[in-house]
Amino acid sequence: MLPTDPAKKLSFNRRIMDGDLVIAYERYDSMKPVKVSENGVLQNRFGVFKHSDWIGKPFGSKVFSSKGGFIYLLAPTPELWTLVLSHRTQILYIADISFVVTYLEIVPGCVVLESGTGSGSLTTSLARAVAPNGHVYTFDFHEQRAASAREDFERTGLSSLVTVGVRDIQGEGFPDEFLGRADSVFLDLPQPWLAIPSAAKMLQQDGVLCSFSPCIEQVQRSCETLKSHFTDIRTFEVLLHTYEVREGNLGNWQDSDGGSASLKTSKKRMR
Amino acid sequence: MSTMKSEETLGGSQNPRITWEGCSVLLDINDGDRVLFARLTAGSKIKIGNKNCSLQPLIGCPFGSSFQVEVGEDGPFLSRVNRSTEDNNLGEKVDCQIMEECRDNRSIVDNNTAQSLTGEDIDDMRRKGATGDEIVEALIANSATFLKKTAFSQEKYRIKKQKKYAPRVLLRRPVTRSICEAYFKKHADKVGFLRVDTLSLLLSFANVTANSDVLVVDMLNGLITGAVAERLGGTGYVCNTYCGNTPYSINIVRMFNFSDETCKRIVHSSLAELQPSNGGTSTSIHQLEDAYNNRSQENKEILSPSTAVDLVGMEESDDGNIQTVNNLAASPKTVKSIKPGEKAPPEAIKSWKENGFSSLIIAAPELDAWSIVKELVPLLSYSAPFVIYHQYLQPLATCMHNLQTQKMAISLQITEPWLREYQVLPSRTHPHMQMSSSGGYLLSGIRIASSDNPQPK
Ligand SMILES: C[S@@+](CC[C@H](N)C(=O)[O-])C[C@H]1O[C@@H](n2cnc3c(N)ncnc32)[C@H](O)[C@@H]1O
Fold it and tell me: Are the Cβ atoms of A72 and B448 closer than 8 angstroms?
């Protein structure tokens, strides 16, 4: 997924190869990750697509099915991955993710601790930010989820940047080997206040902790605990409205027949 | 979000979390009342209230440290104070009292006789070596009305006096987040009203990461360029492109403490140079090299004075705005061997022509988005993402429509970021006033391979 390997970096000359991960794009709300293999096929409502037709084409190409339906083949990015990954938990989306990465002040080379891993939606963007020589250590106490996340990072080519550990972070805290070593710590846990004292010990001076909680009661309790370990405590709510653009003709009032004109506007959607 | 309190545990000269002579810092005075950028040198000074203080004591301190203005034998100086987590509890103590508040302000008459300490008394205390905090305590002790005030206004009184008699300076590390927040708060017009959440989204939508070649149109004084360079960590390139002969100013880049390695990766190139040439490739490379050699000399003469002027201009603003101290660009000791924002090397331009850019960010609030997009999207690799920031929705809507009808891109989306900060305190949690009515709009998308070129060459 990342341009660490120059041979795989996106380019006019980069062709889809056997073994590549591609995002099969039908529409903005309908995409699927596919591992390309010479004998593979992708079947959807537009028909049957043979992977062998894809090999040798550039990323971003339009490809056709036996029935003449088409999809686009995109190179994976953390943004696309967040839209296609399999939801094993609630996940973070781009608005929160981008804000968290900036506030955690992550730059290439940073050491970042995270818990819980969940579905790895945020982890993917953390890995992009620490590349090429930093590392993300992410922990979840759910063995199965940790294993699935590990498989995903293998698939997206991030496993050299991410280590997934199985550990009860609320109960045991982060491992001692990270004492005073972390540049940033991120928490998405049901009771983050239990992990905050440990997170504080892991951080370097002036390092940043960020905790995500859906409920204000959780935020309130976390702030209480943060007070005895941190300064500059701030709380934000981040949202993203999406607009659609459609072409339409608005009739002339003079030409209209009372009651028949229909109104078309750009629609506001929230997520 | 919160910052670990500083503790002097780490040493070492290369620690980016401790200031060094010549480094750039962000100074936050009295809790954000004033924000300024400074270059730490033995000679640099800042003016706080009516006092000039040397910045020398800040050298070698961890970022996150706090200082207070004290007056010593040789005049005012900055003294490091313990920035304790106790400050977090100030508001809360007041809270508990508010719950059981029985006082109110009905008996307070404001007739300027409430304070029995005169200016002369205060000067006298100073001469005798009283600290700022001691003066604040004395003012409180000599205020006839203080005890009658509500806990809330007592706190307000204390803060007001503290800001005046014991002003605090917080030493912040200049990074994308702190720089963007400082500009947005004090000089939003200089950065096209770009809010920190919007900037964060730009970096994500453009998939900025090490080893990528990011094309930008940065008309926000270098904020975008700096933020991208920070994420490249001395790899890849951020290339700021422009139409015509003059590259855009990237003054803000100088506020980051970028290494030479990173500065080298910050380049500019005109649109004409980036577009495919009609002639044979070999000659065009020759021309590029000639142009490169000529231009990089011109650069030094033309660019540097203009940047300096702009920074001085910012220094002149006296309304509590962002200011720069001791001209970040021109401090002799810190002149970098490598300046950010040189002309792109010919090999790089050649490689971009052959391979395309990894992504594109456009932030040109004064220009029509489509006029830029139609020229630059073709310079992107197939499947590369792009994102355009605009303060208004309409130019982006037009742009999106054109991209759709001309089948240049998919995954097109216009989004409006929305951000609200909260005060979180026991039984007093509420949203702050809206940070700004609009953080602008973003159009994001992914370039597709042109259908007339579906087969490999
Ligand atoms: C909401 S999910 C995190 C989602 C993640 N941020 C993402 O974007 O994909 C929360 C995760 O925390 C894990 N978790 C809950 N309690 C934990 C604990 N005490 N220690 C470690 N992980 C825990 C859960 O198993 C779950 O996977």
Answer: yes
Residues facing A236 on adjacent strands: B421
Looking at chain A, which residue has its C-alpha nearest residue B66? Answer: A231
Q: Which atom of ligand 1 is nearest to the CA of A142?
A: 25
| Residue A25: closest C-alpha in chain B | B411
Look at A61 and B449 and tell me if their CB atoms are within 8 Å.
yes
In chain A, the domains with their CATH numbers are 21-76 (3.10.330.20), 80-226 (3.40.50.150), 241-271 (no CATH)
pLDDT, average across residues A158-168: 97
More confident residue, B258 or A267: B258
Angle at B193 between CA B188 and CA B199, to 5 degrees: 115
For chain B, give every domain's residue range.
17-172, 176-447
Burial class (CB in 10 A: 0-12, 13-18, 19+), A75: buried
Report how far residue B337's alpha carbon sits from residue B331's, in angstroms, rounded to the nearest whole number: 13
The lowest-confidence range among A51-60, A77-86, B143-152, B321-330 is B321-330
Report how far residue A43's alpha carbon sits from residue A24's, in angstroms, rounded to the nearest whole number. Answer: 11
List the one residue out of A157, A160, A206, A154 whose CA is nearest residue A185: A206
- Considering only CB atoms, which chain B residues are within 8 Å of A245? 397, 400-401, 404, 414
A203: contact with B, CB 8 A cutoff:
yes
Domain B176-447 -> CATH class: alpha beta
The architecture (CATH level 2) of B17-172 comes to Roll (3.10)
What ipTM goes with this model?
Answer: 0.93
Q: Could you give phi then psi for residue B88, rounded to 5 degrees?
A: -60, -25
